[in-house]
Amino acid sequence: MNLYLRFLIVFIRALFKPRMATLDTSILRFRVLPNDLDLNRHMNNGRYLSIMDLGRIDLMTRIGLFTLARKSRWLPVVGTVHMRYRRPLKLFQAFELQTRIVYWDEKWVFIEQTMISRGKICALGTVQGLIRAKDGNVPT
């Protein structure tokens, strides 16, 4: 339930935030909540990936890709995620998620996502994704 609420908040806010250029960086601020924790009392590794989804939603909405994808019936698809977990995020710790497109070719878009807390990088992720239509991949 928490992620649905976070999703709605991120999406609705993105609709009212200023548009961004394709290569701009999206910045979202979060706090680690009790249901983000694992048994080690820090944010679960899988939760990082879910939070990163929210960063990509904000970016896609603010660069105008969400509207275009909806009208064209395209779906974003994640192909690969490479993660580096450097520091734990603990209960109620505030952190910032930075999301930016770093590269694209005819098929793939590469998105870099960084989670930062107290001025230090806690996690880094690179997401390789593409856009799918009914008849195949949409050229980027």
**How would a textbook summarize the main sheet?**
6 strands, antiparallel
Secondary structure: helix percent = 25-40%
Rg calc: 15 Å
Globular, elongated, flat, extended or rod-shaped: what is the shape?
Answer: globular
Number of strands: 6
Q: Output the CATH topology.
A: Thiol Ester Dehydrase, Chain A
User: What structural class do the secondary elements suggest?
Assistant: alpha+beta
User: Ranges with pLDDT <50 over ≥5 residues?
Assistant: none
Number of helices: 3
Structure explained in plain terms:
The chain contains three helices and six strands. 24% of the residues are buried. Strands 1, 2, 3, 4, 5 and 6 form a six-stranded antiparallel sheet that branches. The chain has one domain (2-137): Thiol Ester Dehydrase, Chain A. A hairpin with a 4-residue loop joins strand 3 (94-104) and strand 4. Helix 1 packs parallel to helix 2. By secondary structure, it is α+β, with helices and mostly antiparallel strands.
Helices and strands in order, then pairings?
Blueprint: H1 2-16, E1 26-31, H2 45-62, H3 65-72, E2 75-85, E3 94-104, E4 109-117, E5 120-133, E6 136-137
Antiparallel strand pairs: 1-3, 2-5, 3-4, 4-5, 5-6
Helix pairs in contact: 1-2
Brief overview:
The protein is of the alpha+beta class. The chain is built from three helices and six strands.
Essential attributes:
140 residues; alpha+beta; Thiol Ester Dehydrase, Chain A; six-stranded antiparallel beta sheet; globular
